[in-house]
Fold this sequence. Notes:
The complex is a heterodimer.
Chain A: E1 2-7, H1 13-23, E2 28-34, H2 43-58, E3 62-66, H3 70-78, E4 86-88
Parallel strand pairs in A: 1-2, 2-3, 3-4
Chain B: H1 3-10, H2 22-42, H3 47-63, H4 65-76, H5 81-99, E1 106-111, E2 116-122, E3 125-130, H6 135-148, E4 152-157, H7 162-178, E5 186-188, H8 194-201, E6 208-212, H9 215-223, E7 228-231, E8 236-240, H10 246-258, E9 268-274, H11 275-287, E10 290-292, H12 295-305, H13 322-329, E11 339-343, E12 361-367, H14 370-382, E13 387-393, H15 397-406, E14 409-414, H16 418-423, E15 456-462, E16 476-479, E17 494-499, H17 501-505, H18 508-515, E18 521-526, H19 534-546, E19 551-556, H20 558-572, H21 578-581, E20 604-609, E21 621-626, E22 631-636, E23 644-647, H22 657-676, H23 682-704, H24 709-729, H25 733-745, H26 749-765, H27 782-792, H28 800-817, H29 831-847, H30 860-872
Parallel strand pairs in B: 3-4, 3-6, 4-5, 6-7, 8-9, 8-13, 9-12, 10-11, 11-12, 13-14, 16-23, 17-18, 17-19, 19-20, 20-23
Antiparallel strand pairs in B: 1-2, 2-15, 21-22
Amino acid sequence: MNAVFLNIDEARVVAALREAGEKLDGSEGEAVLDMASVGRIDSGAVRALEELARVADEKSVKIVLREVNVDVYKVLKLMKLTGRFSFVN
Amino acid sequence: MTVADVVKERVQIPLAVEGLSAERIAYLEGLVGQARTAAAVFSQFTQEDVDRIVKPMVLAGLAQAQYLARLAVEETRLGVLEDKVIKNMVASEFVYNYVKDKRTVGVIREIPERNLIEMAEPIGVLFSLTPITNPTSTVLFKCIMAIKTRNAVIFSPHPKAWHCCAEAVRIMYEAAVKHGAPEGVFTCIESPTLPDNAYLMKHKDIGLIDATGGPGVVKAAYSSGKPALGVGAGNTPVYLEKTADVNTAVVDIIVSKTFDNGTICASEQTVVIDDEIYDAVLKKFADLGAHICNEKETKLLERTVIDPETGFMQPMAVGQKAADIARFVGLKVKPDTKLLIAPIAGVGRQHPLSVEKLFPVLAVYRAKSVAEALRVCVDVNHAGGIGHTAVVFSRNEEVIRKFGEVINAGRIIVNSPGSIGALGAVYNDLVPTFSFGCGTGGGNSTTDNVNVFHYLNIKRVARRTQNHMWFRVPNQIYFNMNAVENLRQFPSLSTIIVTSPLLEQIGHVDIVRRHICPKTQVHVQVIPDAEPEVKVIALGVEALNFYKADQIIALGGGSVIDAAKIMKLKYESPEADLEYLAAPFLDLRKRVARYPTEKANQARLIAISTTSGTGSEVTPFAVLTDKESGRKVTLADYSLTPDVAIVDPQFVMTMPKGLTADTGIDCLTHALEAGVSNYASPYTDSNAMQAIRLVFKYLPIAYEHPRDEEARCMMHNAACIAAMAFSNASVGVNHALAHAFGARFGVAHGRANALMLPHVIAYNAAVPSKFMPSPYTKGYTAHKKYATVADLLSLGGHTVDEKVKNLIAATEQLLDQLGFPRSIAELGISKEEFERAVPELARIAFEDPSWRSNPRMPLMTELVELFWKAYEGRAAPKVASTVEHTTV
Lengths: 89, 888
């Protein structure tokens, strides 16, 4: 199973997530997004994550979010998005 | 997804969505989705982040105060432009002043003395309904509070105040987002309808409904099943008492009642005026621009401004000027009339003007007395104003306090205007608000002025507290042979020796007499050497009173000393109710029944024990028997502890073997139970361990060689030392079992303890099926403490388990040495009889307070099991290392 690895830069979270979505072509089993540098997300990033989850579902790709800080994790929890991603440290 | 699916998924409680199209539901869902995202993002913000946003919002509110006021007056046709400007400024500036330094994110309060920290958790999405009477000011207020607390809000303004509210929301939103607030943090429903409100009130993503408005809105909010702040109607009574400063009072009432044409629900509705000042007050009102209605005018007024069907005010009058209302009613008044004043003769449907009137019409009532005035104010308060606001003008503190007592209002405003006073921070130090909590009487959840803290979930981080413990024993303890000689140092004019017939007969009383301070009048009160009985106590107290005793010497075993303790209690505090004092308690410091501290008499209690077991000479316990009712009550309080204990082995040299064994094992049980107790401390441990060591070493010797002075002395000390341990750490389940079993089968207490002891050690050393909650202990340590005892006794063993087994074996060997039966069966109790008794025994043992300090919480089934283990008994000891080979 192939995997895609991407770093998500806090300065361009939305763009990076969109790019990640575009790179999912279904040949990879999973995509690992390194969120270590993301300290906070805004509404745009939430929407981008929702969209990414939708695309990943369609293409049967598992999205793994790496090093998500707990504040961001709580935002995803409040948005009921945690079930749509895997989390690793 | 169909509309029905959306409703099913999004709405917690099934409701009819009549009047809501699929498009409308999609629209409402969009608002909720936006707000939910904003609230989630907001959760990451720090205190500094929100404070950075709040200030520019407030400045925007202040800058647009006049603009918004104008919009509100033009749209609603209610109120006074100038006053609405003030309201908008209060909602911005005054509220800001209150919130600016408040912590609303993260740690909001630290209470180090209670080891508590309070932390804020946002609510999420609020659904906020705003009124027609204070539209823009309420929006400004709620927006500032929401940002300060990191919440998103969906606003549903009153339809007749929608434009001005939407504009207020826009101004606040733009200021907030410009300074970093999440997008979508405020939204305003376009053309809100009742079905919209109903849908959102039950939406699962709405965290709190904040409903400010009429009773219908508030009721809908509270009926939704959602947490709600519902703040509605009032009916403010005012008592203008004869000592009041009339000039100030009249001006304040006019200021308040005419403010925004009376639209604030806290404004004055009926002024109850003392007869003595009534005419002067009305004249003052008239001088300052009020029109006093005559009887005919009052009738006209009430027929027009109050709906005769419902008894409520007519909406068309709300927020209108007095002169306009007068013209509409047909009254001839001056064009600049500020207020219409209508005298009324009572409160209720027969007196229509006694209800809430959100316009400048004021009812007045002439009261002949303070009592009548207060009664009428209570009537007004209960005619639609419970929990809201009330006003009193008086210089009489007693009247003000009484008014506060009898009126049920969240805000009782003293010597100041009701409406502006209730808003807070202008005339007083109430929290500034535009939402008045009316308490349960008003169907609300709070009586507070709603503020930022109602927009937060407050989490309390409670750290484990190190509860204070204690180690309390008599002031003086004299021990070793001839310690009784120390009696001489205690001066006394009149001493009563409480003792038993046997001890008098064998000369122990004479020994004591010889050592009492010379010139002391001595009387001997002989009581049967059994459990202290009510009648015996009464006789003793009679003697103490008769001889005016200043000293009591208790010479005897536990029963005699217990009797003396109770006699002293009743002598010093004749009113003491022993039944009441015996009320059960869990924590000594929090007990409900408190022992008397005031004393009619005072006597020193010196306890000289003549057995080596109970340790009653140093304990705070006493057991009282009521033969008539067949009941026993246990008294426990440190005030019962004797003042002086004398532990002189000469009084135990003749103790029979059986009693030596029984009392010795009682002493061992005290020490072992105190050692593993949840109340054990290093102070009690040192006593418990020493007592155990002494018992294992000296009890077999004292048993086999009763005249061995050293063994007797050490066992006598051991009993006292063990008692000091259990006086402060208490005992455990062994005592609970022994009490129940001993009482049912007439088995001596020490013997009953012995039958249970090995099984209880094994029970407490095992992993509990149920742990006992205990703030005093860290982790489960009973097994380790037993192992420590085994080490102290040099019983050997490498692991904790081995050491516990060796302790059990050593205990069993000691019991064998002392000739104790190995089982209850050996006592001749048949299995059938025991089987019949066990359920009741378990019930009684469970009710016994002794086990409350046991390290393991006994289940009823476990008590039954322990009884059966004791019945079936123990096997012969198998331990390799025994006490005989132990160096201690």
